[in-house]
Every structure is written in structure tokens, then in C-alpha cells.
Amino acid sequence: MKASAPASTQGPAEEAREPRWLTDEEQRVWRSFMEGVTLLDDHLDRQLQRDAGMPHVYYGLLVKLAEAPRRRLRMTELAMLAKITRSRLSHAIARLEKNGWVRREDCPDDKRGQFAVLTDQGHDVLRRTAPGHVDAVRQAVFDRLTPQQQKSLGEIMRIIAEGLQPTEAGADLPWLR
Could you report the per-residue pLDDT of 112-155, keeping only the tens digit for each? Predict the structure, then answer.
């Protein structure tokens, strides 16, 4: 559906350019993609809430910390790896600290910097939760796709992710906000 164009303060050349509306097929693909992403996120959130009392994004943070050397990352690096804003990360880490799964440590060479560190208790929760989570992911995604579809999905998502992560200075990326 084409929406009315808002009033513009752009010059005549920009105003005359018609938006590149999605074709019917592109619209079908886009809506299927959004429906799948929304339902998958909900499916994984429900599984993790049921099994561990945490949302999917918190699980992802624990995984990233578990994979890091000495189970610790600078908060800014963790925000970048998780693709979330620093504010959202700070809130999540506060909740994980309250559960005893993560602790913060000051950075010795940067007075403003902090590390997030996965505790032994957090590592135990992750180890207990991982089998159910991987079963949920396998059932929702991999068991439904052929090996070729899995490969194509990986390639497509890599291309999309790379295109949304500009490298120029001043890029508007979540972990920089």
C-alpha cells in the first residue's frame, strides 16, 4: 500500500523522485520475513523464560561472556557483539547482576570503563539452559530447512547484517548510542 508522501523541505529534484515501492512479490517476502522473525523471537523468549526465567537477549549476553577469554568483556564490546544500545545493555546487566549471574568490574586502565564478568552461577545456569535452547532453535529453524536452505539463509542474513553495519565514522549503530 502506498502512503501519502509527507510535506518536504527538499529541493525539486528530491521531491520529484518517486519512492521505490515494493513489488507484490517483494511485499510478500518482506511480510513473511517479518512474521517469521517475530514468531521466532517470541518462541525463543518463551522457551528461555520457561526454562531459565530470562529473555532471549539475556541468554545471548551470557553466551557471549562464556565464549570470551576469562568469561569477561568490556561493556562497550559486549554491546557491540550483542547489537544492542549501551542503555539496554546496562539494564540487562543490572538484572543479571541481581540474579548473581554476572558481576561488573572496573577497568584498571580506564576509569570510565567496566567489564561484565560471567559468574560461576551464571555459567551453571547457561550450562543447564543450553540443551533446551538448542532444541528450540533446531526445532524452529534447522529441522524445517534442507541443508541448501540453511546455507542460503546463512548467506542472506550475513549480507543483510554486513549492509546494516556501516564502517564510516559517525555511523548510527545501536552500540554507539
Answer: 889 999 999 999 999 999 999 999 999 999 999 999 999 999 99
Cα-based distances in Å from 100 to 56, 73, 95, 117? 18, 17, 9, 11
pLDDT in tens, 73-91: 999 999 999 998 889 999 9
What does the block give as the cell for 167?
A: 564502517
The residue assigned the cell 544500545 is 85
Q: What are 169's three cell numbers?
A: 565514522
State which amino acid sits at residue 132: G
